[in-house]
């Protein structure tokens, strides 16, 4: 239509959306007592997420950087980060796990609730609790409810706890001599979540 200057909403530029739940690690720790129970170090008041991530990495327990990242990211971003971690740590997934990881990737990019429900169902009825299955549970818990007929809200700590378990479980299966190298790769992936856009 000539002269029509109306711009479709989907074509408008949107402001960037942060991948993090809270602006600072201090806020995150104040709102998640479960995280305080799972890590020894505490963030300083003026510390950014990136600074705290690096301090955790340099601590006696650098695996706590994985725990912090799993909680710091919004649920869907946390699952996506967990997926990337598993993909970078292992290539020898069973056919079942590979199929589940493909569903997780599809859900993380599309946000399709039906895919998330299918992931949860598959993870709940899996024969073994592998790292991929635990990540599937994390994806299932990343929405407001775990099934279309279950209105019970999902506790906020469920997804990050499961992402943390999945990533640390996969890391534990790596050769001990190579773990520092693998952990460094995971933290490089984590840094992308903490960068300012």
Could you please describe the fold and organization of this structure?
The protein has 197 residues and is mostly helical. The protein has one domain (25-194). The chain has ten helices and no strands. It has helices at 25-31, 33-38, 49-57, 64-72, 75-89, 95-110, 113-124, 131-140, 158-172, 179-194. Helix 5 runs parallel beside helix 9 (158-172). The longest helix has 16 residues, at 95-110. The model has no long low-confidence stretch (mean pLDDT 92).
Oligomer: single chain
Mean pLDDT: 92
**What number of structural domains do the residues give?**
1
- Give the C-alpha Rg: 18 Å
Distance between the termini: 37 Å
List keywords for this structure.
197 residues, 10 helices, mainly alpha
Compact description:
The chain has 197 residues and is mainly α. It has one domain.
Element layout with pairings:
Elements lengths: L24 H7 L1 H6 L10 H9 L6 H9 L2 H15 L5 H16 L2 H12 L6 H10 L17 H15 L6 H16 L3
Helix pairs in contact: 3-4, 3-10, 4-5, 4-9, 5-6, 5-8, 5-9, 5-10, 6-7, 6-8, 7-8, 8-9
């Amino acid at each position: 239509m000539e002269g029509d200057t109306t711009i479709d909403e989907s074509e408008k530029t949107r402001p960037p959306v942060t991948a993090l739940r809270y602006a600072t690690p201090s806020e995150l720790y104040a709102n998640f007592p479960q995280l305080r129970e799972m890590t020894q170090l505490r963030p300083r008041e003026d510390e950014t997420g990136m600074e705290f991530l690096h301090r955790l990495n340099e601590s006696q327990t650098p695996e706590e950087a994985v725990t912090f990242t799993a909680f710091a990211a919004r649920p869907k971003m946390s699952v996506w980060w967990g997926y990337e971690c598993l993909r970078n740590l292992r290539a020898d997934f069973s056919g079942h796990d590979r199929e589940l990881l493909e569903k997780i990737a599809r859900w993380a990019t599309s946000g399709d609730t039906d895919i998330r429900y299918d992931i949860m169902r598959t993870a709940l009825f899996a024969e073994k609790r592998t790292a991929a299955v635990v990540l599937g549970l994390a994806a299932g818990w990343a929405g407001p409810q775990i099934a279309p007929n279950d209105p019970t809200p999902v506790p906020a700590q469920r997804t990050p706890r499961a992402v943390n378990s999945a990533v640390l479980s996969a890391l534990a299966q790596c050769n001990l001599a190579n773990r520092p190298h693998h952990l460094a790769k995971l933290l490089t992936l984590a840094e992308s979540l903490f960068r300012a856009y």
